[in-house]
């Protein structure tokens, strides 16, 4: 199968889905009101609440939800064959992920910018809110600690990316200052910044930086320490100074990277060398249900609900922008995952090379293998248009690190909100303030990341997939109850919700059995706790459904009488 044909057909499918199904879902279920006062205007403080141009906010939202996950997930899931991975990304993003993200953003906006956990309190009940907060805290703790390790590992494996990545920070700050304080033209400023970044990528090849082992003699732990200092500072700064302009610039960087890959496919027209379906993999779990857990962010991800209701909603200028930002952002992430699938299946020189890389589950599941598959494949595409191999590899490497970085700082900011809500609900009001909640967010993640010589975060990482998809299912559950109470059709959210909760629970039960066989007490305990939280949340939702139904019946009886 030709990779170019798949890329073109998928892009066309996404355009049609956005125009038709996205418009239908937006208008039929959520009916955005252009005259509604969004939280960005109602609570404007130029720190978190900042009304933002929809194109800039799209860049922030897109890069925050994307990160490295839509690359590394597909890069391992293709071990089961490229067809299952491709179909899950396409149909999952259109019919599940995009609705999940759009619903979260719209409902959060109408609830005065409250997080999805606070929204759940209003929709389902107080107990449900705390259940949501616990799941979200656990998920973001894993994301922050592991992504710091991911970035540190990438810096060590690709030292040529260090200079351009860190130069993004002053560049983004300069763009934010020029646009918001000097009223500079945003297109000119962002394009100039983008050009500068590629110059930095070129320079970075000649000045690769190797971090000395300052912390405990380990370069990895030293990088982790530096990254958490950055995340702490970035999370405290007003959103327009660094987070927003950096994400906007990074979105441009991704567009360029995807265009370069597409041009490479246009020139080379590489054939997919991986098998279409490959269910007999040494050491691998069954592709059903684990495909739907392995590929998360490219199809649907609970992490997105935290971004949509944590940072994006506070910058939403108009409800009419929500479809482009949330539904469109999910489809754009889906397209990134398609490129990751193609890079990991058509970017290899031969079927033998692919088979060697994906010889077994253990061989393909390591961080180096996942990232390496994308970097190798993407650079192969890019070199097809005459770009030198070293520069092509640097472009692909910087692309991954940049997006991992945006996930790290956005996740830290959102985790501080979650901790603030938990602290306030438990009566610790001093800890709910911005500075202490951010400090707790960074400190807890740093402790987890540095346990066992920098492998601590990886201890709990096997739970990420199920926890992430569980949160997505629970978010769809909250959206469904909201629509039911608003007398809107629930078919379009309840089917994805049931599918996701079934697949997640199925995978979690299999994992628990494996953890029992391996006597892994920590993972057994956390898995059972997460499963109990899921069942409890579902029970709370059923109660909310019944109450809403009784209210409808009572209202109907009053009208009829």
UniProtKB/TrEMBL annotation:
Subcellular location per the Swiss-Prot or TrEMBL entry: Cell membrane
Transmembrane parts of this sequence: 85-109, 130-156, 162-180, 187-208, 220-242, 254-272, 284-303, 324-349, 390-408, 435-453, 459-483, 490-509, 521-545
GO cellular component, one term: plasma membrane
Topological category with respect to the lipid bilayer: Multi-pass membrane protein
Domain CstA N-terminal, first and last residues per copy: 2-345, 371-507
One BP annotation, GO: cellular response to starvation
InterPro entries assigned: CstA, CstA_N
Main location: membrane
Any matching Pfam family: CstA
Keywords: Cell membrane, Membrane, Transmembrane, Transmembrane helix
Membership in a protein family: Belongs to the peptide transporter carbon starvation (CstA) (TC 2.A.114) family.
Protein name per the record: Carbon starvation protein CstA
Organism of this sequence: Orenia marismortui
